[in-house]
Amino acid sequence: MTGTDPATGRLAGPTIQEQTRQAVANCLAVLEAGGAGYDDVVEVGVLLADPADFAGLNEEYARAFPTDPPTRYVARLGVEPPGVLVSIRMTAMTS
To answer: How many CA atoms lie within 13 A of 62 on its CB side?
Structure first.
């Protein structure tokens, strides 16, 4: 998921915080549609356009997972659409 607002089809904003917040919300919507939530997430994959945005990413990530965050990897985006700063993937397990 990228930081694209599904209502407008546009990026949530130009900052890593705005795009991360929206990408996380987009992931949560998919999780909930499948009967899961943040507590079911076991792994998160993050692709960043610029590694310098890591601190801003962490600000928003900590809001979604304030305690006991799932395993996470972060890598650099190779080729990104214009303006896209972050892409997030969450894997969840439910019983």
So the answer is: 7
pLDDT of residue 90: 97
Secondary structure of 17-75 as H, E, C letters: HHHHHHHHHHHHHHHHHCCCCHHHEEEEEEEECCHHHHHHHHHHHHHHCCCCCCEEEEE
Which pTM value belongs to this model?
A: 0.92
Q: Domain map of the chain by residue range?
A: 16-92
| b/e map 27-41, b = 16+ CB within 10 Å | bbeebeeeebebebb
Give me 53's structure tokens: 């945005």
**The one-letter amino acid at 59:** E
Fold of 16-92: 60s Ribosomal Protein L30; Chain: A; (3.30.1330)
